[in-house]
Structure formats: C-alpha cells, structure tokens
Amino acid sequence: MAEIIRMPKMSDTMEEGVIAAWLKKVGDEVKPGDILAEVETDKATMELESYDEGVLLHIGVQEKDAVPVNGVIAIIGEKGENITDLLKEIEGGGSPSSKKEDKKEEVSSEETKEEAPKEKPEAAPKPAKTEDVDISGIHATVITMPKMSDTMTEGTISSWLKKVGDEIKSGDILAEVETDKATMELESYEDGTLLYIGVEAGDSVEIDGVIAIIGEKGADFEKLLQAQKSKNTASEAPSKEVASEEKTAEKPAEPKAKESTKDAPVSEVAQPSSENGRIKASPLAKKMASDKGIDISLVKGSGEAGRIVMRDIETFDPASIKKPAAPAAAATSQGAAPVAIGQESFREEKVSQMRKTIAKRLAESKFTAPHFYLTMEINMDKAIEARKSMNEISPVKISFNDMVIKAAAASLRQHPKVNTSWLGDKIRYNDHIHIGMAVAVEEGLLVPVIRFADSKSLSQISNEAKSLGGKAKNKELQPKDWEGNTFTISNLGMFGIDEFTAIVNPPDACIMAIGGIKETAIVKDGQIKIGNLMKVTLSCDHRVVDGAVGSAFLQTFKSLLEDPVRILI
Fold this sequence. Notes:
By secondary structure, the protein is of the alpha+beta class. Residues 2-77, 140-215 form the Lipoyl-binding domain.
C-alpha cells in the first residue's frame, strides 16, 4: 500500500522546508535509511531519510520549492501501484488518510453530492499530471524565489544577469536579489537555456513565486507554467480556476516583448570583464580595487568565465588601459537638463526590502514594547590610556567600540536579566551572550552578531567586528552572521553624536546607544578638572527589564570602562 511522505518538523522554529536537492527520482527503489532529499530549513540543510520500503512513485515538490511542515512531499509504494485517486485527493486539498476513506464509505448516501462539486475541481489534477509529463518530457525546470533569510517574505529582482535565450550552466549567477537583509546572488543549479523570465528587474515576488524557467532549447514551457498555476490554485473555486488558467496562458507572451526592449540597453552599458553590465569579480578583488583606487571595470579578468580575481588587481597597470568612461560621462552631462530657478522637483524610489523590514520591525518594537531609557556618563580617561597601551602590543588595532562590546558582555554575565527576550507568554533567559553590532549601510541598518562575546579577548572581538563590518558594507553577510543576537549596541559616537536613544532590536530586551567621547570640565575631589566623558543610554523593554535591573547593569558597565583592567579578569 502506498505511503505518503510528508515534510517533517526538523527544528523547533521550522514552519516550512525547501527541497534543496532530490537524491532519488521517480521509479527508484527505496529502502529504510535511504536519503530521499536534502531539505533546507530555517536553521540548516538536513537530510530527509526514508522509513519505508518500496518504489518512489511520485514527487510532489520540485527542487528549490518550499513546502509547509506536514505538507506532502512524495509517495512510496509498490511498483506499478495505481495512485491516481490518492493524487486527486491531495491536489483537491484533501488530507488522505484511512479515516477519511472510511468516512467516504460510511456516508454512501452523500456520494452524489460530494461528486457534483468535485467534477470541476477534477480539472486541477489534469494540469498536475501535465506538470509531471512536462518535467520529464519537456526537460524544463521552474526556478522559484528561494527564502534567503529567516525573516524574508519576498524578494526584489535588483538586476538580471542573464536574458532569455542565454545558455545557463550550474553555478552561473542568474540575477541579483534584494532581500530584507542584503543583496544576494541567485545561483542556478540547472544546465540548459533560459526559456522564460517571469519577474522584471525592480519588481518583487513572494517566496516560491515563479522567477524563471530553464530547460532544453525550444521546450514548450507554457505547459509547465500552466501546470504550476493549476498546482497553486487547485483548492480555489472552479470559476477562479478558469480565470487563472486564462491569465496563465497569456502570461508567457508578455515577458518576451519586455525582454526584447531590455536587451538593447544591456548591451550598451557592457564593459570590459563584465556580463550584461555586471562586473564579474571576487569580493576580495573588489575590495583590493577599492583600496587601491582602481576602476575595476577596466581590469581584464583571468578567472573562470572572465571573472576578475586578486591576481588581476595586483598585476593591473593603469597606464596600459585607456579609460572608456569618458563617452558615458559626456552622455550623462548632455542628458542632464538644467533645473530652472524656483522650479519644484522631486524623485521617488521604490522602498528597498531592507528598508521595508527595518520599518516593520522597529515600528512593531516601538509601538508594542513599552520603552524606558536610562542615561549615564562614563569617565573614559583610564580607558583612553588603557587602549593606547593595548595597541602597542595588540595584533589588531583595538577601538573604543571593541572595549564597549567587551565591557557590555562582561556586564551581561553579571546581570542575566538584561540578557533576555520577551516571547509573549514567557520570558527567555539566554545563558549565551551574543552581541549585535549595528552597522550603517547605504540602504539602512544591519546588525551582525559577535557570538559568545564574553569569552573572547579584545583582539578577537576587534578582528571579528572589523570583518563583520566590512561584510555588511559589501553586502556579503550570510544569515548566520546576523541571527541570534541577545543584546545590541548602537554606536554613533564616531559621527560626533553626544547622546541619543535607540529603539529595542527584537528579540532583545535592551539596546545600548553609545555617544562620542567629549573633553569637558568635571569636578573631582572638589576641584574642576578636564576629563573625557562618554554618555550611554540604555533602552529597555519594560515588560522584561525593570528600572532597577537596568540601572544595576549600567553601574557595572560604567565601573568596567572606568577601570578597564577589570574587563580582563
């Protein structure tokens, strides 16, 4: 008897899984313990093991597609077993089980009533069968929007690096996708021809939405689109299904017209060592070129597919290259119309995914969590002397921000009630200390995390902070770099800000705002002296942290920075 394989819950926070790769195909013999597929969860990529023996009769989720926990993934049964009825029930939105089958047998008098409304929905399984045929016969694969971060709900196609008709190889970058965290590259895992693009550059698409189709040249991808559409609308009313299928049938024609208009501008902006206007270079090469003041578009790449690598920057001779940028600059200056005096003007830009998420999360935090603020002045005279002494022997340059992170981590160890999270019906007390470090980037704000900060030395914190800060500004952060903070520090002192308040960064209970070190007159032992003061403001979620708890934390933090030797104990 056929057994349905469902998506298991592989972590405590998992709501859905993405099939990263199928390791078995329809018709393969499967034994208990065999690995069916690799599943990408919200935590990691894990192996999906079979507990049944038989033949893989059906695969219900394509690679790179997401399926909710307990959703149907595949069917295993005896070779040649008829699973048509089982598929119809699954695609019709039913939950196939022995109990439901028993109920259908018991309620025989209502069979005619049940069959009547199901006559039209039966049209849904037909496209589903076509989808199976299309995948095996047409040899084309639907590319959908992957979930690139834990909070991502949709992605914006920043730019397409390939166009319809291009040959694609596994590992090629199809497009740049702007998520709520960063701009990331969408890599192809398929070989073939780019047959269809479903989302224009600048437009957004929800997770699992169709982005493109890759397959054999000349393959009939329209049937594949119809199958995908019918799969998504199988549970809708018959009238809606008909309308959806009509729109789906017309949909493939639209992008072709748009693609033809897009091809011309792409070729116009093409530069050396680039493809479709995008400079193909490694992150290290980009950083080296930026540090050396080299226009990377003039460098000829020697890496795979013309990719610019580190050695190309090291051996680059600007004198041997004639810059082609002058015509572009001239064209820009000619195209810019002078603005008349007194003329009103403005420009509008689409809100980036990062800015959308910042707005949503901080608005929720500000208007949901009852904030209160505690401000304290800290004498940094000894910290300045200690930093100067440390940097004489430290392998990396230690900053005041590094000292703040270390002192905060040590203070959290003494005041664990500050290192907490509000979970609605319970409070989480974190035993580990992960410090989030707010970093300003062009599109907004990122918070990379320094993990186990209390157990790291100042030089280790400094090295990690510099590395994460560079990754944030170069949009190279990975999900593991920004997840898991238990406390956050926002430092605007380097911008000349004396004092400010910050909004709590969920799920933290507190965030500390660090102002600049300012030379000012202070009273010490009854005498006025010149000292270096730094103001810090602790923003607290009053649902979790009370004023006395926050004040005690700040007193410890102050004592550690005013006598930095204590940080090292």
